[in-house]
Every structure is written in C-alpha cells, then in structure tokens.
Specification:
Blueprint (H helix, E strand, L loop, with lengths): L3 E2 L6 E3 L2 E3 L5 E5 L4 E5 L2 E6 L3 E5 L5 E5 L8 E10 L3 E10 L2 E9 L11 E4 L6 E4 L2 E3 L10 E5 L4 E5 L2 E6 L3 E5 L5 E4 L10 E9 L3 E8 L2 E6 L14 E3 L5 E4 L2 E2 L4
Antiparallel strand pairs: 1-4, 2-3, 4-7, 5-6, 5-13, 7-8, 8-12, 9-10, 10-11, 11-12, 13-14, 15-18, 16-17, 16-24, 18-19, 19-23, 20-21, 21-22, 22-23, 24-25
C-alpha cells in the first residue's frame, strides 16, 4: 500500500484474513506543480504538495503554507474536529474584490505530524486548479485511478421494458476503477429517435463534461462530446446506465449494479 498509514489502524493480516482499517489516513508527495487561482490571483503555487487519502473521501491536496499567499487569507473563529487529524483552523480568502469564507483550513497541532505547516482548500470555492499547465476539474487526480477504454467486437444490446434502444457489435468498453463496466456505442447503432436531449450535465475529473439523454421520466444515457485525453476513445459515443436499462453482452443478461 502506498504511503504511510497514519490512522493507527493499518491494514494487515490477522488470523489469516486480510482486514482493512476502519478509517485509513495516509499521504504521499506530489511531484506535479500545483496552482490555485481565485479572484484573478494565484493563491497557491507549489511543487511541494502532498495528496491525502482518507476513507470515504476523495483525495485532496495539502499545500505548504510557505507556498500560499497567506497575505490574502484571514484567520476566522471557525473550527472543526477530526478524530484522526485533530482540530482544524480556518481562513477566509479575499482577492479581486471577492471573498470565499472559511475556504481554507489547516491543523496547527495535528495528530498526523506531517500536516503541520500545510493547508488545504475547498475545491469548488476556488476559481481554477492546475496540475502543471493543465486545468483540472472536479477533484485532484488520483494516481491509483485508471480509465481504460478498449475497442471491442462483443455484441451489446440495450433495452428498456422490452424496447430495444441500441444494438452494436462495435462498442468501446470502458473499465474504470471502482465503477461498473460501461458500454459506449456508436450513435448510428442507437435509436436516438427514442431518446430526448436532457438539460442534465455532469463533470468527471478523468473523462470530462457529459451531456445526457432521457427516455421517459429519467436520464438513461450520456455522451462526452469533448472528452479529456484519457477518454478520447469514447468521444461522441453513447453510454447507457447499467442501473436503469437491461443490457445483454453476447446474449448474456448483465446484472444491474
């Protein structure tokens, strides 16, 4: 396992069984240059960030205070307590005539020693994040999260209540860490006449911005018209929710996640 567990309950082997800790907290150095922008100012610019991994949370950057524009931050009275990190102090960011209240936090007397002298930012409170010169959306990239999009000749059929909405023998199958297998199909093999464009959008840190289609009362399919480079093979293809449709692969019904 990468990094050093800091929870006091590291994973291990007990009586022949592999057991996970109830709450895992560990970090590792980030070798990328990380920048944070707000109100037209670069609030942080560092090559010394650490990436924190914590049970039930997305990974998050912690940045040395020495690489943060602390002159643009004002300490507030707000505080919170974490049983594995300690008591957090908060700062409000002010720049360009705008403020983000309690958008930055740190641990003056942390339980995990390496947290001392580092602060973190609420991702969505900032205007932009960069890894090197590439803007990053959604959350930091997890180096242990993979997206594999593979061309296939498997036969995929998608239906709802017995109505076939798509059938293709040229899918791109997308395998993504921690998520169900997804089948992306050429638009020519999809009954787009049975789908209605939806106003729903979402953003994936690894694939980009998705637009949706509905069938009846709910959204059942999506596409990436301008995917990020990891998802380029699924550009303009249509994917159906395994959870909301009946999918057969080579004649075998697939369980709904």
């Amino acid at each position: 396992m990468p990094g050093a567990p800091l929870s006091g309950r590291p994973a291990g082997v007990f009586n022949g069984d592999v057991r996970a800790p109830e709450h895992l907290l560990y970090s590792e150095p980030v070798h990328k240059r990380i920048r944070v922008e707000f109100g037209g100012e670069t609030i942080a610019d560092t090559t010394g960030a650490r990436l924190l991994f914590e049970t039930a949370h997305l990974p998050i950057y912690y940045i040395p205070e020495s690489d943060v524009r602390m002159d643009l931050l004002e300490r507030t009275d707000h505080s919170t307590h974490c049983p594995v990190k300690g008591d957090a102090a908060y700062w409000t960011v002010s720049a360009g005539g705008r403020t983000a209240e309690n958008a930055v936090w740190g641990y003056p007397e942390p339980i995990a020693p390496w947290l001392e002298g580092y602060v973190s930012f609420y991702w969505n409170a900032m205007d932009a994040w960069y890894e090197e010169d590439e803007q990053v959306f959604g959350h930091p990239h997890d180096p242990y999260h993979r997206v594999d999009a593979l061309r296939s000749s498997r036969h995929v059929k998608v239906s709802v209540d017995g109505t076939v909405l798509a059938e293709s023998s040229r899918p791109v199958i997308l395998f993504e860490t921690g998520l169900p297998v997804r089948y992306y199909l050429p638009r020519e093999d999809v009954r787009l006449d049975a789908l209605k464009p939806s106003e729903t959008t979402s953003y994936c840190a690894y694939k980009g911005e998705a637009g949706y289609w509905s069938h009846g009362p709910e959204d059942i399919a999506w596409t990436y018209e301008t995917p990020l480079h990891e998802a380029e093979p699924v550009r303009d293809l249509v994917c159906f929710f395994n959870e909301r449709t009946d999918i057969e692969v080579d004649g075998e019904p697939q369980e709904r996640p």
